[in-house]
Amino acid sequence: xxxxxxxxxxxxxxxxxxxxxxxxxxxxxxxxxxxxxxxxxxxxxxxxxxxxxxxxxxxxxxxxxxxxxxxxxxxxxxxxxxxxxxxxxxxxxxxxxxxxxxxxxxxxxxxxxxxxxxxxxxxxxxxxxxxxxxxxxxxxxxxxxxxxxxxxxxxxxxxxxxxxxxx
Amino acid sequence: xxxxxxxxxxxxxxxxxxxxxxxxxxxxxxxxxxxxxxxxxxxxxxxxxxxxxxxxxxxxxxxxxxxxxxxxxxxxxxxxxxxxxxxxxxxxxxxxxxxxxxxxxxxxxxxxxxxxxxxxxxxxxxxxxxxxxxxxxxxxxxxxxxxxxxxxxxxxxxxxxxxxxxxxxxxxxxxxxxxxxxxxxxxxxxxxxxx
Lengths: 167, 195
Description:
The structure holds two protein chains of two kinds.
Chain A: H1 2-13, H2 15-30, H3 36-53, H4 61-78, H5 84-100, H6 109-134, H7 140-166
Chain B: H1 2-14, H2 28-41, H3 43-59, H4 63-83, H5 91-107, H6 114-135, H7 142-164, H8 170-194
């Protein structure tokens, strides 16, 4: 059970993961996209975790994830209407890189698989929970607040990317 | 469905009290606290950030919305320059001048076109970002530190905006302009110490 909880908590306590999921939730809430985008994200998370279960060893995933968080945050700050297809593409890329950045530390196969299962549930649940809030941002000041949050997320991701580049 | 997801998420959140072993390293809480306190303990930074919010509120819409969105992004670009070690001469002087100029803009109730205000604030944002970027400590969790630092900067803007909203009333307007004057004087004192 510890492995399952460790996986569940992974997207909640890794700041880069929280940032990217929050940025996606803000963008989905801001745009008038249907349920396809969160669905694509969930499928991408499962695909990425499946790849890890098949012993795929990813490289530079946190950098990719932070780049996607920066792009998503910028799009939230710009607040321009975007096609749903683009949203699906972005959600797929974000879900995939988030999953690939979540390799379990445990060596035992059962424990590792439980951790991956927990990560899948945690990552999808976190997006759905945040969407419950961001989808309700209808007032003008709430939309401005979402744009400010988007610019903060983009700024954080850009700073961290620069740090990764240097250190 | 929505309420169920939120309830389930709340239960999940309770488990964060535990500390699972994960592959990611770095002190998240220490990094966040360090980043959060960094802009607050530099008085020259803090007063200039408050002045940005004051001026935004004084200028009214759309400046009140645009400045807090644009500032963190431009500041991040300045931060990138600082992290990459790109030299920017007179950064500390620029920060002191930012407090003096922005405070003076509020004190004099200056209302330039939005693009002029954005250029002034943007230029100072690069100075502030560069200084912060160059001072980012090694070892701390980079994401948590940057998050704390950006949130603290944004919170200072919001403090300025909140106080600046008093400008809707005649006495409040006077109080806001006086606050701008105090910030301008503080900026001149910072500048005097540097020269």
